[in-house]
Amino acid sequence: MDLVETDDVSRHFGRRRALARVSLGFRAGEVTALVGPNGAGKSTLLAVLSTLLRPSSGQVRYDGRAAVAWGDDLRRHIGLLGHDLFLYADLTARENLEFFGRLYGLGGDGRLRDRVARALAEARLEDRADDRAGEFSRGLRQRLALERALLHEPRLVLLDEPFTGLDDDSVGLLAARLDGLRRSGSIVVMATHDFESADGLVDRVVAVRNGRTRELPPGAGSLRVRYQAVLREAWA
Amino acid sequence: MNALVSVLLGIAAVMFAGAPFLIDAAPQESTMGLVQKIFYFHVPAAMVTFAGAFVCGVASAVFLWRRRVTADHVALAGAELAVLFGAIVLVTGPLWARKAWGVWWQWDARLTITLVMWMVFVAYLILRRFGGPGSEVLAAAVGVFGMVLVPFVYLSVELWRTVHPTTNVIRSLPPEMAWPFRWCVIAFVVLFGALLLARTRLESLRAALDRAYLAEED
Amino acid sequence: MMAVLRAAWLVAQKDLVVESRSRELAYTTVFLAVACVLVFAFALVREGRAPDDAPAGILWVAVAFSGTLALGRAFERERQAETLRALLLAPVERSAVYLGKLLALLVLMAGVEAILVPVVGLLFGAPVSRAPVLLLALLASGTVGFAAVGTLFAAMLVRARSRDVLLPVVLYPVAVPVIIAGVRGTAAIFAAEPDVAGAATWLALLILFDAVFVTLALWTFAPVMSE
After folding, report:
1. Which among B120, B132, B137 has CB closest to C174?
2. CB contact A21 to B (< 8 Å)
3. pTM of the predicted model, to two decimals?
4. Cβ distance A6 to A23 under 8 Å?
5. Could you state, in order of their start, the residue ranges of all structural domains in chain A?
6. Could you give the residue ranges of the DSSP H alpha helices within chain C?
7. Between chains, do A85 and C22 touch, taking CB under 8 Å as contact?
8. Positive or negative, the Cα torsion across A54, A213, A37, A191?
9. How do the domains of chain C map onto residue ranges?
10. What ipTM is given for this predicted complex?
11. Which CATH class is domain A3-89+139-147+154-235?
């Protein structure tokens, strides 16, 4: 998959509009940040891109085809790190990864075990692999959740607030991960309100506010400053 | 659309105005006497209740699989009418039973079936009202299940009641009773049609209002 | 087809592993079922005896109430950390998720009923061992019918408001034929003069219900879960 486009996508919940006529394109090898305050519509946009939510109007196209044309198989290429992490608290880190690995059809035991081991290593969780995920701190769960989302090497990587709860070391790990994804040609879309952590990690920034989006023009200055500038000029 | 509804309501009004005279003129049934005449309203109301359930079920299926918004409006209207006319059946039934057989409720097969189906569609309405945004789709599933449920409720209640037989409604009608009966059936069906159209339209307008709210924000 | 069954089995297995760790559902469901039996016993027993068909009725009411609790809790678990969404994201037909949850629930209810039936037999002197295969078939098919509809409704209500009270509200009316058939069939077995043919008729109705409603639920799951 090389291109994901949203074409005039809107989404409302009853009378509340969460996304308003969003038209964006996301390309392979590109890391895009969606920045904006809480309730802006970032999570909704990610959910729509992941096929979990249908747009109320408009269409999402993956390499030119709509989700229905792809069928269930489309989801093989999509990885979502949700705001709520998608981890089973009563299963160990290893078991969580193995369960989702099997569900995604990641081969017989040998191959799966290798992948899981690699994922645990990437998340620096080897020594906690057999502890229940429910016992982990938020930061550890965040690292595990990221690996769970990436286990099947999806082409479209959607991350919702990936910096939550991460210490500096972990942010560094995440940065390295993002770089690796970019180099392998994945499409990465990341929603965050943590300007400082995202600064310098991303190729492209889209500001989201009240369901509307606006691309930040490339420029000097910190992410926060550039964002404030767009806020003032476009949505004053 | 409005014109059609008005015409149908007019016809229904005329028919209901005339109904009492026809019912009065009809002969009294031998065993139950005057009380039996409630059946001229009770039975057509029951027929229309199940028509409402069927409409809701089919429209729910269309909405669930095709997401045609109009189907959702029709489904809601159908469910409300099933509940409304079902209430009429469930009130006239016991009134009749009390006078005819001395008890308010006798677990008569047909009345019980109506009660169960009524509850399914009340549940449909409760779900729509209290389930929050997106509950239209959930209710549609209930509507579809409700419609498919009808034969099963019928079978299970009929089987259940045959073990303890009880006086049943006279099914074969002599012509002097058949004509007023048909008159009432048509009156109810016309009323049902009018209300269905009107309620569907009302719901479409409400949805249009929501869309206007959303558009206004843009 | 195979992929669906495989995925369903994975989901069911995961549920059973999670359950075996905490046993929360097992203990609470069994306890509620037995508590139910007690409440009804106190309501109905007079001079040391329950009315004739009461044991059958009590058994099925306990199954329905405890089943509803188990359904609600099983899906409440998937709401934490939104794991249900993760399941829906998997590249398999979504009905596999339904099937997996249904299987896990059936295993749980089988365990509950294995305790419930002897308890009812003990407390009311009901002849539970009179026609074991028929009784087992009735319980199995009735539980499948109840769970088939219940699993769909519980899953779809996960994202609804007031979901705790809405589950019984929508489930019980639709489950009426299952309750009637289950109770009448069981009562036919427990009766002073057992009516095996009658019980078999009720069993046939339950099996028909199961076939129709499991199929309907499989069809409906993906569209209703798609937001």
Report:
1. B120
2. yes
3. 0.93
4. yes
5. 3-89+139-147+154-235
6. 2-22, 24-44, 54-79, 83-89, 95-124, 132-157, 163-190, 196-225
7. no
8. positive
9. 2-225
10. 0.93
11. alpha beta
